[in-house]
Specification:
- The complex is a heterodimer of chains A (358) and B (297).
- In chain A, strand 2 and strand 3 (173-175) form a beta hairpin.
- The longest helix of chain A has 28 residues, at 225-252.
- Chain A starts with 12 loop residues before the first helix and ends in a 5-residue tail after the last helix.
- Chain A has 14 helices and four strands.
- Chain A has one domain (44-353): ABC transporter involved in vitamin B12 uptake, BtuC (Orthogonal Bundle).
- Chain A has helices spanning 13-16, 23-43, 46-72, 80-97, 103-122, 130-150, 178-199, 203-213, 215-220, 225-252, 262-275, 280-307, 314-335, 340-353; strands at 163-164, 168-170, 173-175, 254-255.
- The mean pLDDT of chain A is 88.
- Chain A has a two-stranded antiparallel ribbon with strand order 1-4. Chain A has a two-stranded antiparallel sheet with strand order 2-3.
- Chain B has one domain (2-283): ABC transporter involved in vitamin B12 uptake, BtuC, CATH 1.10.3470.
- Helix content of chain B is 73%, strand content 0%.
- Chain B contains 13 helices and no strands.
- Chain B has helices spanning 2-32, 39-55, 60-83, 91-113, 130-135, 142-164, 166-176, 178-183, 188-214, 223-234, 239-259, 261-264, 272-283.
- The longest helix of chain B is centred in the first third of the chain and has 31 residues, at 2-32.
- Chain B is globular.
- The mean pLDDT of chain B is 84.
- The chains are: A mainly alpha (358), B mainly alpha (297).
- At the A-B interface, helix 6, helix 9, helix 11 and helix 13 of A face helix 4, helix 10 and helix 13 of B.
Chain lengths: 358, 297
C-alpha cells in the first residue's frame, strides 16, 4: 500500500534510469537527509555526536569504499585500514606543507594518495584471485603501517609517530564543535554516497559487477580487465582514504598509526558482511550495527550489574563482549547471509502488497 | 660465512614453527574449503588450556590428554554450530564466520583461565647446542631443533594417517570432490568434525612449541598472521607446500632482516614475508604446490 510503484509510468529513458526511480524512495531519502541535517543537530547531545554519529558516518564511508571493491568488483581486501591510514596521514601532510590549501583539498589529496597506493597494491589482483588476493592485501596493511612508523617525513618527525590534526577551517569558519564536525562529515558522506550510487548504474559500475560475477566471461565480452580492476581499487581506496582523513580530523583529532591496525580492517569487513555485500545502503546498516553493538553491550552489562547488584569484574566484561560479538556475527551469517540489506529488500516486497497480500 | 649459516639455520628452524601453524590451515582448507582464520585462536586455546592445567599441578601427560579432549570438543561443537548451518555458503561467508569463531574462542579461553601471560617449560632449554657452537661456532637453539624434529614427526604421522587409514582415505576423498565423496557414502559432517579435531591437535603441537618459545599469551594468536604468507607461497591445498613455504619464508625473512633491514630502518619482518609471497604469486598464482586454477566460462 505504502510502497507500491503501480501507476508510476516512465515515458523517457532518463526517467527510467534515474538514481531513485521510485517516488517513495526519493521521498524516503529526502526525509532521511532532512532529518539528519536539521533534526539531529537540534536534539542530539555532545556525547551522541562525538561517540556515535560521527564515527558511524565515517565508518560507513569506509565500508562503502570496501563495498565498492569487494561487493561490486568482487576483489576481497583485508587492507582497508591501511588505505584509511594513507588518507589520514597524507591529508595531514598536505595541510602541513602546502600553504593556503583548503581542508577539503587536503582531504582530496589524502584520498588521491590512498588511490595511488590502492592501484599499486591492486596490481597483483590481475594475476591472483580469491583468498590468495585477500592475503596479498595484508601485505599492504603491514607495509603501510610500517612505512608510517619508520619514515619520519610522514609524521613530520614526531618521535612517537603520533600526529595531531590541524584545526578544521572551512571557508574561513573554524569548525570546532562536535555538532559542526558532524555536519561536515554528514555532508561529505552524503555527497560521496550519492556519487557511489550513481557510479554503480554507469558503465563502470556494470563492468565491476560483470567482473565480480565471472571475470573470464567479462573479459570475453570485451571488458578491459586491467583497467576495470585497477579502477575498482582506485575508487575504493579513494573512498577509504577520505574516510581515513575524516577519521583523523573529525573523530580522533590525535592519531597514532596503530589506530589503523588490522582490527579496524576486520571491523569494516564485518560491516559489509553484516550490512550486505554489494549494497550501498548495506554499508550504512552494517556500520550502524557494528558501532552500536559494543555500546549496547556496555550499557546492558552496566544495567545488569546495577539491577542485580553484582560486581562483574573487568576481564569478564571485556571477554564477554568479545564472545557475544563473535557469536552475533556467526548468528547473523547463519540467519541472513546476505545481510541486513536483504532484510530491507524482503520488507519492501512485503510492503508492496501490504495490507492485502492476495 | 659462519654468521650467514647461523642466520640461515635460525631462519629455517623458525620457518618450521610457521609451518606447524600453516599445517592446521591446510588441513581444514583441503577438506572443507574453509579458510580458517581461527587457527591462531585454536593454537592459543590449546596452549593456554595446557599450561593452565600444568600450573594446577596436573600431570604432564594427563594435561596433554585433557587438552586434546578439549580440542576435539571444540571441533565437534564448531562443526555442529557453525559449519553445518553454513553449508553451501560462499567461501567469504565461511571465512567471516571463522573470524567470529576466533573472537568466541579467545574470549572463552581467557574467561576460563585468565588473561595473564604464562611461561611454559617443556624441559628443553632455549639455549644453543654446545658441541655445534664449539666445533663450528654456529649457534642453533636446542628448542628450535626439537621443534623441527616434532614437525617432521608430525608431518610423517599425518602422511601415514592420510595414506594408510580408512579415515585418512575418506578425508582425501572429501578433499578431492565433496559430491563424489557423498555419493560413495562418506558422511561429510563426520569428516569435517574429524578434520577440525586433527587441526586442533596440530594447533596443540604448534601451541606447545610457540608457547615454550615466547610464553603463552594473547600475542600467540598473531602467529596465524605469520602463517598466512607461508600458506599462499606453498599453496592452500598442499601439506608439503606448507612445509617448504615455511622454510622459504623463515629463511628469507631472517636473511632479509639481517642484511637488508639496516638499510631501511629495520623491523621489516612484519611485511617482508607478504611481499615475498606476493612477488612469488605473480609468477605462479596458485602458489608452489597449489592446484592449478583453471578458468572456464
Amino acid at each position: 500500500m505504502l510502497y507500491r510503484e503501480a501507476g508510476q509510468f516512465k515515458s523517457t529513458y532518463a526517467e527510467d534510469q534515474q538514481i531513485f526511480p521510485i517516488l517513495q524512495d526519493r521521498i524516503g531519502i529526502g526525509v532521511i537527509l532532512v532529518f539528519a541535517f536539521f533534526v539531529v543537530p537540534a536534539i542530539a547531545t555532545q556525547y551522541w555526536f562525538s561517540a556515535l554519529l560521527t564515527p558511524f558516518l565515517i565508518l560507513s564511508l569506509a565500508a562503502l569504499g570496501l563495498n565498492i571493491l569487494t561487493g561490486y568488483a568482487g576483489q576481497l581486501s583485508l587492507g582497508t585500514a591501511a588505505f584509511m591510514a594513507v588518507g589520514a596521514f597524507m591529508a595531514y601532510n598536505a595541510e602541513l606543507r602546502i600553504p593556503h590549501i583548503p581542508l577539503l583539498g587536503s582531504f582530496a589529496i589524502g584520498g588521491l594518495c590512498a588511490a595511488a597506493v590502492g592501484i599499486v597494491f591492486g596490481l597483483p589482483s590481475l594475476r591472483i584471485k580469491g583468498f590468495y588476493l585477500a592475503v596479498a592485501t595484508l601485505a599492504c596493511q603491514f607495509f603501510v603501517l610500517w612505512a608510517i612508523n619508520r619514515v619520519g617525513w610522514i609524521t613530520n618527525y614526531s618521535s612517537s609517530g603520533v600526529i595531531s590534526a590541524q584545526k578544521i577551517v572551512i571557508f574561513g569558519h573554524t569548525v570546532g564543535t562536535s555538532a559542526g564536525k558532524y555536519l561536515l562529515t554528514l555532508t561529505i558522506v552524503a555527497v560521496m554516497a550519492l556519487l557511489a550510487k550513481n557510479l554503480m548504474r554507469s558503465e563502470t559500475g556494470r563492468a565491476f559487477m560483470a567482473i565480480r560475477d565471472m571475470d573470464v566471461a567479462a573479459s570475453v565480452i570485451g571488458i578491459p580487465m586491467m583497467k576495470t580492476k585497477l579502477m575498482a581499487f582506485a575508487i575504493s581506496s579513494f573512498y577509504c582514504g577520505v574516510a581515513g582523513a575524516m577519521y583523523a580530523y573529525c573523530y580522533l583529532g590525535t592519531v597514532e598509526p596503530e589506530a589503523f591496525n588490522l582490527d579496524l580492517s576486520f571491523r569494516i569487513l564485518f560491516m559489509i558482511i553484516i550490512g550486505g555485500v554489494g549494497s550501498i545502503m548495506g554499508s550504512f546498516l552494517g556500520a550502524g550495527f557494528i558501532t552500536l553493538v559494543p555500546i549496547f553491550l556496555n550499557l546492558s552489562t552496566d544495567w545488569i550489574s546495577s539491577t542485580f547488584n553484582i560486581e562483574i569484574s573487568h576481564t569478564v566484561v571485556s571477554n564477554g563482549e568479545a564472545i557475544i560479538f563473535g557469536a552475533l556475527i556467526i548468528f547473523f551469517l547463519i540467519v541472513e547471509p546476505l545481510g541486513l540489506a536483504r532484510l530491507w529488500q524482503i520488507a519492501k516486497e512485503k510492503l508492496r502488497l501490504w495490507p492485502f497480500p492476495h | 660465512m659462519n654468521f650467514f649459516i647461523e642466520v640461515l639455520a635460525g631462519g629455517l628452524l623458525a620457518g618450521v614453527m610457521y609451518s606447524l601453524v600453516a599445517l592446521g590451515f591446510v588441513l581444514i582448507y583441503k577438506a572443507s574449503g574453509v579458510f580458517n582464520y581461527a587457527q591462531g585462536s585454536l593454537v592459543f586455546v590449546a596452549a593456554l588450556t595446557f599450561v593452565s592445567l600444568l600450573e594446577r599441578n596436573v600431570n604432564f601427560w594427563l594435561a596433554l590428554a585433557i587438552t586434546l579432549v578439549v580440542m576435539v570438543v571444540v571441533a565437534v561443537v564448531t562443526e555442529r554450530v557453525v559449519l553445518r548451518p553454513l553449508v553451501n555458503q560462499p567461501p567469504i561467508t565461511l571465512f567471516m564466520a571463522t573470524i567470529g569463531l576466533s573472537f568466541v574462542l579467545e574470549g572463552l579461553s581467557q574467561m576460563t583461565w585468565g588473561a595473564q601471560p604464562h611461561g611454559l617449560e617443556l624441559g628443553i632449554p632455549d639455549v644453543p647446542i654446545e658441541w655445534l657452537s664449539q666445533k663450528a661456532n654456529i649457534n642453533i637453539s636446542q628448542l628450535d631443533l626439537f621443534a623441527a624434529l616434532v614437525a617432521g614427526v608430525l608431518v610423517a604421522g599425518l602422511a601415514v594417517f592420510f595414506q594408510k587409514t580408512r579415515i585418512g582415505r575418506a578425508l582425501r576423498a572429501v578433499a578431492d570432490d565433496h559430491q563424489a565423496a557423498l555419493a560413495v557414502g562418506i558422511p561429510l559432517q563426520h569428516i569435517w568434525a574429524i578434520v577440525w579435531a586433527v587441526a586442533g591437535f596440530v594447533a596443540l603441537v604448534a601451541g606447545l612449541m610457540w608457547g615454550a618459545r615466547n610464553g603463552v599469551q594473547y600475542a600467540l594468536t598473531f602467529v596465524a598472521l605469520k602463517a598466512l604468507p607461508v600458506l599462499i607461497l606453498g599453496g592452500f591445498e598442499s601439506i608439503p607446500g606448507a612445509i617448504v613455504g615455511g622454510l622459504i619464508i623463515g629463511a628469507s625473512e631472517k636473511v632479509a632482516e639481517v642484511y637488508l633491514g639496516p638499510y631501511v630502518g629495520g623491523g621489516i619482518e612484519s611485511w617482508f614475508p607478504y611481499v615475498l609471497a606476493l612477488a612469488f604469486l605473480l609468477v605462479r598464482p596458485q602458489g608452489l604446490f597449489g592446484e592449478k586454477i583453471i578458468d572456464r566460462v
